[in-house]
């Protein structure tokens, strides 16, 4: 590692002034920040972000701009913003950053001290920073505990310390808690104490875990002793764990966890999942995550055909007209954005919209696997059907744009993608992702 020059230290002090607003993010390489951290005995605060990440932009335009946060962070840390897909790619890999925003604190040796994923820390940036300072001086650093964990799988006392410390550090506690549950002798599984423990830790429990097994094995007992809110929480428990695990597996594309999701969906009546999902969509995800293109395409074609053949377009439009007439009674445009959006949605057709979204969602994944002219023809058939349901619908335009781009027709793809992005309402949470895709298309067209 290069020695830091006295000129660099002087330059840093000269350029570090009292900012009236916001966190002062340094535009220096990560390795250089490590040297500064050593020289000043400070932690480095890193905001790992990407260009297309909407929540990242919320942090940047909100909490990061606040004066009190700026004063605290500028006095206590060296702050960096690293694009995890560009200049910060190596650092992101070093700290296993896979979701954005990820906020981490490291010391001058590069040791991970504290971390969090998402925009939660933005609610109390100063408290988040103080937790990092406390973590840096504790006997057990996050990295040291993680290094010890594999060799301590039968050490009940260590495992309890481990998952409690992971919680303090803002790290994932599920593995540590599960390891502790397998060996713990502190709480009887069929007891009110264990029921309360599981209810309290529900947000850290995943399908296929020891905690889930304990819950399933003792569910009847827990229900028999529970009252009021506890009973309601127990009845919603499985579905909550299911939805959390579903969100994780779709983020990580974990085929093994997706297989467990399919098993639980078929096994338990109290698991409802998301209204837009069914056994078909879960199996499609499993084939996709398992990289089984032929199985995926075969099932996708069967599923979309079942959607197309379920009802005639005329019948769908008739039902949607009746629904709109019922919903729009005593409502009018111009009162507020939400009412306007819902009126527009129901006027287009709720069932038609749901169908278009379901077909194009499968179509987007199908596009990643197609190789033959027959498959391209199949995808075009799905797109044309969506246009018949709702002419010019942005989901269909977006899919057609991606297909045209794959075929090399970049100019037409840009026109359609632009139209789709412009039509997307405020309710499309990942609109920024589609804008990013459009920007990439435009860059490719310049080459």
Automatic annotation (TrEMBL):
This is Thioredoxin family protein. InterPro entries: AGR/TXD, Thioredoxin-like_sf, Thioredoxin_domain. PANTHER family: ANTERIOR GRADIENT PROTEIN-RELATED, THIOREDOXIN DOMAIN-CONTAINING PROTEIN. The lineage of its organism: Bacteria, Pseudomonadati, Bacteroidota, Flavobacteriia, Flavobacteriales. Keywords: Signal. It comes from Aestuariibaculum suncheonense. Residues 8-138 form the Thioredoxin domain. SUPFAM superfamilies: Thioredoxin-like (SSF52833).
């Amino acid at each position: 590692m290069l020695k830091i020059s006295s000129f660099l230290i002087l330059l840093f002090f000269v350029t570090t002034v009292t900012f009236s607003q916001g966190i002062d993010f340094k535009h220096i390489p990560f390795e250089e920040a490590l040297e500064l951290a050593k020289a000043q005995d400070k932690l480095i605060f890193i905001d790992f972000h990407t260009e297309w990440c909407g929540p990242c932009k919320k942090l940047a335009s909100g909490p990061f701009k606040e004066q009190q946060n700026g004063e605290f962070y500028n006095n206590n840390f060296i702050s960096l913003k690293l694009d995890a897909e560009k200049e910060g790619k190596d650092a992101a890999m070093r700290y296993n950053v896979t979701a954005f925003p990820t906020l981490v604190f490291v010391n001058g040796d590069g040791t991970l001290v504290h971390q969090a994923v998402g925009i939660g820390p933005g609610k109390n940036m100063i408290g988040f920073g103080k937790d990092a300072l406390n973590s840096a001086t504790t006997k057990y650093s996050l990295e040291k505990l993680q290094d010890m964990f594999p060799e301590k799988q039968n050490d009940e006392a260590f495992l309890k310390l481990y998952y409690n410390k992971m919680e303090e550090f803002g790290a994932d506690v599920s593995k540590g808690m599960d390891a502790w549950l397998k060996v713990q002798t502190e709480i009887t599984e069929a007891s009110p104490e264990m029921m309360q423990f599981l209810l309290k830790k529900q947000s850290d429990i995943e399908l296929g875990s020891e905690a889930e097994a304990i819950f399933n094995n003792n569910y009847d007992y827990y229900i028999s002793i529970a009252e009021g809110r506890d009973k309601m929480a127990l009845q919603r428990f499985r579905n909550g764990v299911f939805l959390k695990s579903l969100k994780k597996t779709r983020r990580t594309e974990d085929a093994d966890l997706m297989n467990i999701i399919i098993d639980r969906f078929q096994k338990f009546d109290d698991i409802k999942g998301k209204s837009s999902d069914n056994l078909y969509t879960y199996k499609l995800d499993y084939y996709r995550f398992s990289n089984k293109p032929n199985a995926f395409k075969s099932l996708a074609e069967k599923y979309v055909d079942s959607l197309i053949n379920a009802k005639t377009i005329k019948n769908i439009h008739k039902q949607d007209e009746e629904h709109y007439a019922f919903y729009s009674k005593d409502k009018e445009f111009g009162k507020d954005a939400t009412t306007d959006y819902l009126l527009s949605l129901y006027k287009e057709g709720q069932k038609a919209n749901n169908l278009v979204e379901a077909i194009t969602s499968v179509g987007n994944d199908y596009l990643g696997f197609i190789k033959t002219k027959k498959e391209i023809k199949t995808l075009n058939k799905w797109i044309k059907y969506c246009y018949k349901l709702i002419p010019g619908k942005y989901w269909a335009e977006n899919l057609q744009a991606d297909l045209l781009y794959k075929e090399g027709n970049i100019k037409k793809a840009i026109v359609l993608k632009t139209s789709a992005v412009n039509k997307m309402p405020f309710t499309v949470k990942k609109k920024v992702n589609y804008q990013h895709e459009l920007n990439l298309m435009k860059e490719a067209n310049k080459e």
